[in-house]
Specification:
- Keywords: Autocatalytic cleavage, Hydrolase, Protease.
- The record marks 190-191 as: Cleavage.
- Residues 165-186 are annotated as: Disordered.
- There is one protein chain.
- The chain is an alpha+beta fold and 326 residues long.
- It has one domain (6-323): (Glycosyl)asparaginase (Glutamine Phosphoribosylpyrophosphate, subunit 1, domain 1, 4-Layer Sandwich).
- It contains nine helices and 13 strands.
- The strands form two sheets. Strands 1, 2, 3, 4, 5, 6, 7, 12 and 13 form a nine-stranded mixed β-sheet that branches.
- A hairpin with a 4-residue loop joins β2 and β3.
- α8 (253-263) packs across α9 (268-282).
- It is globular, with a radius of gyration of 18 Å.
Length: 326
């Protein structure tokens, strides 16, 4: 007898305001989120493993220029794309992660290859790309990732001598107020992710990102760090985070929630809200996360004004949302 299955995705959390988003852009974002969650859910319906479901969902988001991962990745100070990603499978707590890759179209698929086809957990830079080519990934020129929108965002950040973070400590004293953008995500923390429970009871999580605009080359956030931005433990929980990566690393957010559920026996709602609205928010760590427990209960937590997100729950009910008050 198979058990209930479910999947949830996110496309980043942060300062997402209704008045800054056109109806056309909102509809395009919602449609892509729906496409992504349905791609993963269809695999679950067919009896596929949760890992393949979350990778399928994230791949759709990586292929869209709307989200800060893969095709839509932001640019470093050196005007390059550097991408990070990770996956984790809950059965044996296996994981695969990559960071600082520049020429891989779908970093999330490479992270899965690290899990399945290497003796390691985490590969970076040239070493990660060499492994990718050995696994059959095609070299992708930087031009594929370049968009005028991301270039304009970078120039704005350079002029203000800051990163694309809304936290004041990341801004120089001389920085002026950021000019309005036709896109609402200049202060959205760019990460995409998915969590799922399959018919065999396996939990899995996947997270992918282009990082933050105007970051120093070589900077790595929480997305590829197991226990910070991603975690999956069968019988417990799977989590994918999005937010100010330095805080999520320092406070080991995903791992902290998993530990609260494992040792304190907190439910997924209590554990997530305690960390995101409590400890994380108290130190200025803005962001959010998606989580699913061993029974297929889904939860979205955020301390920001919005998070792009969608789900198909264990009852087969679909929903897609953007703002925190939805």
């Amino acid at each position: 007898m198979t058990q209930p299955f479910a999947i949830a995705i996110h496309g980043g959390a942060g300062t997402i305001l209704r008045e800054q988003m056109s109806d056309a852009l909102r509809m395009e974002i919602l449609a892509t989120l729906e496409q992504a969650v349905r791609a993963g859910h269809q695999l679950l319906v067919e009896g596929a493993d949760a890992l393949d479901a979350v990778v399928a969902a994230v791949t759709v988001l990586e292929d869209s220029p709307l989200f800060n991962a893969g095709k839509g990745s932001v640019l470093t100070h050196n005007e390059m794309v550097e991408m990070d990603a990770s996956v984790m499978h809950g059965a044996a707590r296996e994981a695969g992660a990559i960071a600082g890759v520049r020429h891989i179209r779908n970093p999330i698929q490479l992270a899965r290859d690290v899990l399945r086809h290497s003796d390691h957990v985490f590969l970076i830079g040239d070493g990660a790309e060499q492994f990718a080519f050995q696994q059959g990934h095609v070299y992708t020129e930087q031009d594929y990732f370049f968009t005028e929108r991301r270039y304009e965002q970078l120039q704005n950040m350079k002029q203000q001598d800051r990163f694309a973070l809304s936290e004041a400590s990341y801004q120089s004293e001389s920085a002026e107020q950021e000019p309005p953008s036709e896109y609402p995500d200049d202060k959205k923390f760019g990460t995409v992710g998915a969590v799922a429970l399959d018919q065999q009871g396996n939990l899995a999580a996947a997270t992918s990102t282009g990082g933050i605009t105007n970051k120093r080359f070589g900077r790595v956030g929480d997305s590829p760090v197991i226990g910070a931005g991603t975690i999956a433990e069968n019988g417990n929980v799977a989590i994918s985070c999005t937010g100010m990566g330095e805080y999520f690393i320092r406070y080991a957010v995903a791992g902290d929630i998993a530990a609260r559920m494992r040792y304190l026996k907190e439910d997924v709602h209590t554990a997530c809200e305690t960390v995101v609205q409590g400890e994380l928010k108290s130190v200025g760590g803005e962001g959010g996360l998606i989580a699913i427990d061993a029974q297929g209960e889904l939860h979205f937590a955020m301390n920001s004004s919005g998070m792009y997100r969608a789900e198909i729950d264990r009852h087969g009910q679909f929903s897609v949302k953007i703002y925190a008050d939805e």
